[in-house]
Amino acid sequence: MPLGVNAPGGGGVPFEEVTRPLAPGSTLVLCTDGLVERPGTDIGARIDVLTHTVDAALKGAHTDPDTLDRAAERLIRTLIADTAVHDDDVTLLMIGVPAPDGTGADG
């Protein structure tokens, strides 16, 4: 679920708060709906594009800041056709947990 959806005025989507450890080599991606929501499109399909893009950008890669920055840039280029005319706020946070050998989950 995009960040802020349950904020006041955010639609009140039911959710359950849970705590889970992040496995070594995993990447946590958090974003607001401004990254994936477009009038006339299915938000579920746009979230699928986001997950496939993250998977392709990070498959076998190190979870270092430079790699995460490049993956974030790729996500924004893929999901926002023209940033100059994009009229919604976007927040994207990517947190990489290094594997013991310093690579990503599949490295």
TrEMBL record:
Q: Which is an annotated Pfam family here? A: SpoIIE
**Superkingdom, according to UniProt?**
Bacteria
Q: Where is the PPM-type phosphatase domain?
A: 1-97
Keywords of the record, alphabetical order, are: Hydrolase
Could you tell me which SUPFAM superfamilies the record lists for this protein?
PP2C-like
Q: What's the protein called, per UniProt? A: PPM-type phosphatase domain-containing protein
Q: Which organism is it from?
A: Streptomyces coeruleofuscus
